[in-house]
Design brief:
Blueprint (H helix, E strand, L loop, with lengths): L3 E12 L2 E12 L3 E5 L6 H9 L6 E6 L2 E2 L10 E4 L11 H10 L2 E6 L5 E7 L3 H14 L15 H13 L5 E5 L7 H18 L2 E6 L2 H7 L2 E6 L2 E6 L1 H6 L4 H6 L4 E9 L2 E4 L2 E4 L9 E7 L5 E3 L6 E10 L4 E7 L2 E7 L8 E5 L5 E5 L11 H32 L1
Parallel strand pairs: 3-10, 3-11, 6-9, 9-10
Antiparallel strand pairs: 1-2, 1-4, 4-5, 7-8, 11-12, 13-14, 13-16, 14-15, 16-22, 17-21, 18-19, 18-21, 19-20
Helix pairs in contact: 2-3, 2-4, 3-4
The structure holds adenosine-5'-diphosphate (ADP) and magnesium ion (MG).
């Protein structure tokens, strides 16, 4: 059974008059990989800094193992942090960079039964133990044999591993990571995502990870906390968040979603575009207005006469694995991902199985997301540019024709 390790209780943070964290409530289990996910400015870093003890919340509590730690300074918390800018000491080699945390003298306090400090003494980790722990940690982050390298002789990914080893060598119970892969290129970032997950499982501690990259969150997390404007929108496993988004914000932020205005006629029947569709959802009031999510990969293209709906293809983009096509249904544009090629201008029918619908309650985000018109305009601009190029080519071709004569 997983055990609760950290709890944020009614956490608020205000700067001047602006509330940047608005009554956050969250628990984090021991050995869990939990990700705070949301757009820039939603309060992820602030939350992490409060957990680390670098920022004091305006109100609310941080509990660690059931004990309130609001007033405990960072170095007394069993929590370490890896920042995006991982500032290694350039003059120290990899071994000494990692050993640094262990060489700092720690003050051990003896307390009496009232919690009053009665004596303090400095303790040092013995040199042989430092050696063992550093080498073990370098092995964990796959940097065995790099002990004598200086940071500037390492790649970005390797430097990041050193920063992680340095943060883990003190054996914290929790590691905080604030967009640690932000500076790496895409390929390396993907490799490091898998690596970080492996490291977390190997050392068996809690990771609290911050990112604005939904794919990164889906890849690594046991639990995702989706945030917007200082509030939690949804907490769940990656599957929960993807398959059962709570509102239009979450549905739009995680993956691609067509979000259509609908009415829940009765259990398992939803109406949109004036037509009834079978779905699997229930528990809404009769004729309750709802937001209907249809993922681009859950839509089948069929001949118009077999379609539940008929629309017109307005854009086609080849994506390697599939085509992204934009289809206009009465002025509302959907994104459909398909392996079948349907050229621009074609009338197509679509079919959606009952499990392809996800029905959400109306929210403050209704109507703000899920129409691909603007996406389509971007592509139209791009294809207009292509058309201009083609005209140029045509002109050149005519001139060549002229020369041939
Ligand atoms: N020290 C500060 N002073 C004033 N405003 C701040 C400070 N730190 C963060 N903020 C504001 O708090 C909000 C949340 O910021 P942050 O937690 O850094 O978001 P995120 O990490 O999700 O991008 C932003 O509007 C930001 O401008
Ligand atoms: Mg941030």
């Amino acid at each position: 059974m997983s055990k609760e390790l950290i709890r944020l209780r009614d956490l608020c943070m205000a700067y001047d008059d602006e509330l940047v964290l608005d009554h956050l409530n969250l628990y984090i289990n021991d050995k869990e990989f939990l990700t705070l996910l949301g757009p820039s400015g939603c309060g992820k870093t602030t939350t992490l800094r409060i957990i680390g003890g670098f920022t004091t919340p305006t109100s609310g509590d941080v509990l660690f193992d059931g004990v309130r730690i609001n007033d405990v300074p960072p170095y007394r918390r069993q929590i370490n942090t890896v920042f995006q800018k991982y500032a290694l000491f350039p003059h120290l080699n990899v071994f000494e960079n990692v050993a640094f945390g262990l060489r700092m003298p720690r003050v051990e306090e003896q307390r009496d039964e009232n919690g009053k400090v009665v004596s303090r003494r400095k303790v040092k980790v013995p040199e042989e133990e430092i050696r063992q722990r550093v080498l073990e940690m370098l092995e964990t982050v796959s940097l065995k044999g790099f002990e004598n390298r200086k940071p500037d002789a390492l790649s970005g990914g390797q430097q990041q591993r050193v920063a992680i080893a340095r943060a883990l060598v003190n054996r914290p119970k929790v590691l905080l990571l604030d967009e640690p892969l932000g500076a790496l290129d895409l390929k390396l970032r993907k490799d490091m995502q898998i690596e970080l997950k492996r490291i977390q499982q190997q050392v068996g501690i809690t990771f609290i990870y911050v990112t604005h990259d939904q794919e990164e969150a889906l890849t690594m997390s046991d639990t995702i906390v989706v945030m917007d404007k200082g509030t939690i929108q949804q907490i769940g496993t990656p599957e929960d968040i993807y398959n059962e988004p709570k509102n239009a914000f979450v549905a739009d932020f995680i993956g691609e979603s067509n979000i259509i205005d609908g009415v829940m006629v009765r259990d398992r029947v939803v109406k949109m575009y004036g037509r009834e569709f079978a779905c699997l959802d229930g528990g809404f009031a009769e004729n309750e207005p709802v937001d209907v999510v249809i993922r681009p990969e859950d839509i089948d293209i069929v001949p118009p006469e077999e379609g539940q709906l008929v629309g017109t293809v307005t854009n086609v983009t080849f994506k390697g694995m599939q085509y992204d096509i934009i289809v206009d249904f009465k002025g509302f544009k959907w994104l459909i991902q398909t392996t079948d090629h349907s050229p621009e201008g074609r009338h197509i029918g679509v079919k959606i199985d009952p499990d392809g619908f996800h029905i959400m309650k109306k929210s403050q985000y209704s109507g703000m997301f899920g129409d691909y018109s603007s996406y389509s305009e971007e592509y139209e601009e791009l294809s207009d540019a292509d058309a201009l190029d083609e005209e140029d080519d045509g002109e050149a071709a005519r001139r060549e024709d002229g020369y041939a004569e």
